[in-house]
Amino acid sequence: MSRKLFVANFPYSTGEESLRELFGRYGEVEEIKIIYDRETGRSRGFGFVMMETEAECVQAADALNGSDLGGRPIAVRVAEPRPTPAADAEGRQGPKRFALARPKGRRTRE
Asked: Is residue 54 part of a domain?
């Protein structure tokens, strides 16, 4: 089981302090990570909260899922670990996110 919670649909103006206060009612909050947009620097409305114990994590998820935060119903669930890509027969890892750039040759029109 995990001690990390995935929290989504909170207002963009929500900061670490308000999340720490909200989740602190259910146990010790170790870490909060709000995900920000790279280009605008604005919160994307989701993040992760790390609790001290699994019991506190489950209790907070059960109590806060669907609760109101800043006029929006937040979604809270226990975070699942990212799956690791499986290697194929040649030892290559799973599908790549981006295609490799290929050099373009000069084309001449005839």
From this structure: yes
Residue 109 has pLDDT above 70, yes or no: no
CATH value at residue 24: 3.30.70.330
pLDDT at residue 89 tops 70: no
Q: What sign for the dihedral angle of Cα 38, 43, 48, 52? A: positive
How far apart, in Å, are the Cα atoms of 40 and each of 12, 20, 35, 96, 104?
12, 24, 12, 26, 33
Query: What H or E segment, with its residue span, contains residue 62?
Result: helix 54-64
Type and span of the H or E element at 77: strand 75-78
Tell whether 105 is covered by a domain.
no
pLDDT tens digits for range 49-79: 999 999 999 999 999 999 999 999 999 999 9
Domain of residue 21: give its range.
Answer: 4-78
Segment 29-34 shows an average pLDDT of 96
Compute the distance between CA of residue 44 and CA of residue 14 in angstroms, rounded to an integer.
Answer: 10
